Each structure stands twice: as structure tokens, then as C-alpha cells.
Task: structure prediction
Amino acid sequence: MNKSHTVALLSKRVFFCFLLLLPFCKLLNGDSVFAEGQTKFAQDFFDSAEPITLKDPLAVILGAMDNDGAFVFTYADAVKFAGHSCPAVAGAYKSTQLALKALYGKETPVRGNIGVTIMGGVDENVNGPISQIVSMITGASAENGFKGFGPAGKYGRYNLMSFATEQKTDSKATCTLLFQRRDTGKTVEITYD
Result:
């Protein structure tokens, strides 16, 4: 063995031993070794807002969850996604929640089975930021979405979100969204003032 190989091997062993000892040293000191697993928000209501639960067949097919699993989105998730809390983020979250309740009743909504049309262009008012929160929850995407499997585009989310640039939201409103179930065609319009 040459000298550089021996030094490299010794360095790896020292580093490995350090990694093994670090958790024990931290525990003896009373500190946690790993992240707490929960973001600490400045506002308590972020964690207390009613969560939104959806099934996601694509997640099941790709092995991200079991057949009976569901995604649970919280307002805190929306805040993390946006990087802040503001009326647009809160309005997008609540509008989506209300729409899903109206469309599905007591059924669990199905992510990727919901089309969303936002009145006005993506750059009008706060349509862009609102669309991102709605997309995170529903899976509906514009032209940048997953196109699905095979020629039929099964499980696709591509073009499930659109902007009706020719239709404007009432001047007193922040945003108007039209949610539609793809399986039944049932629609609901939500206007956020």
C-alpha cells in the first residue's frame, strides 16, 4: 500500500468513527441529534386550520402510499410551499377546501381528478400565487404538469389548470376559481373577496 492510500483509508475510518460517536455525545449533552421533524411557526393557527385529505391514485401506482392511504394537506404545508402566510395563500387554501367539500360531500376527494379554471390571466391580481397553492393540493397543473402514462395519459395532471384570460373576476373580488370533477362533470365556482 502506498502512503496516500493509507492516509485516505485512515481518514475514512476516523470520519466513520466520528459519525458513530456523534449521536452518543449529543445525547449525553441532552441535545437532540436529529431535526425535530416539525417546523416551528410564529403563528399557532397555521397548525390549527382544518386539514384537507385527498386520495391520490398516481401516488398509489408509483408506490408512494398504500391503496387506502391519503395525502393530508395542512395550512402549514401551504405556508411552507409559499414561504410565507398572506391573504392570497389563506384564500387559496380555504377556497380549495370549500370547493372540494362542495364537489365531494362526504367522499374523500381524488387528487388528479379535479380541473381548475381561474378567471383572468396568471399575472392578474394574485392569480399566479393562488394557482400554485391550488395545484399543490389538487394536483391540477397547467402545461408543466405530468402528462400521464401511455397514449391515453392515464393519471395525467397536464392542463388540468387553466386561466380564462377572456373572463375577468369581479373588480371587488381577489380571485374567482371554477373547480370541476373530471369523473362526474360537477362544477363549483368559488369567488374569494
Notes: The helical segments are 3-28, 45-48, 57-61, 75-82, 87-104, 127-138. The radius of gyration is 23 Å. Strands lie at 52-54, 71-73, 114-119, 161-164, 175-181, 187-192. Residues 4-12, 14-22 have pLDDT under 50 and may be disordered.
